[in-house]
Protein: Peptidase family M50
Amino acid sequence: MSPFDSVLRRFEAVEAACNERLPESLKVGFLTLYAFTTRGEPLVDRVAERGPWRRWHDLGVGVLVACGLGAVGAVGWVAVVALTTDVESTAANDPNNMVAIPGVNEFMPLAAAGYVVLGLLVATLVHEGGHAISLRVDDLPIDEMGVALLFGVLPLAAYVKPTAAVEDAPARARLRLFAAGVANNVAVTLLVLLGFVVVGPDTIVDAYLVYFGWLYTPAAPPTAADVATLGVVGNTLFWVGFLNANLALFNALPIWPLDGGKVFRIVVAETVGDGADAPRSVVVTASALTAAVVLLALFGPSL
Structure:
């Protein structure tokens, strides 16, 4: 047994011991505390029974495809620029600035921590809520649903875990399921843009300049005073909209196991036949190529 395997087994043993002592609604895994329930279906059913959810999720498949194409096009363009021109590395290429942790990410000052956490919670709740509603609309069971807390404190995301019955569901139901989260994130982003129109269209420009304008000028990263100039409404709208948009675009990428990758696999399988070897090889190749382009776009200027 290698030293790594030994450490991993000890780590898993500690996790197992902790889970034995925790209440039924809590569990730990890889430094993350999960607060969850296995009895959330009745609550989701009350929402799923109202509204044209199936039509919305059918439309969501098109929304996901559009977001995926847009995201691939955007990162592809950035990657080409990084390869063909002498682009200098900026704060946007700093690995620290690619994690959504206020105080670590220079674009997310500690003064904005509350707004960032709120934005993350809204984005993940509406995303996973879309998956949960789609499951129940198509009468598919939910295994568990809950919230993940890094180190037991920092909210990471909401999550919904379906049962294995999803694998046997019709292709259209699975397409709706995987597209529902992205569609909800896009809907929230559009609502936020409408909110900016109501409070004043200049507010969104001001917010962008406060948090990202320093990237293009000799100015320093945003301070608490800069954040305060936007007010509660401006900060809330900005981070809810920004994080919903980013979650939608990221999840729409054709990379397994993201939602876009799952939709891509279903489309390929339905086209060439799920029993063939082609679907897996095509999806793996597409995932690897897309991931490589994303990495090149992010780190290309630093190479």
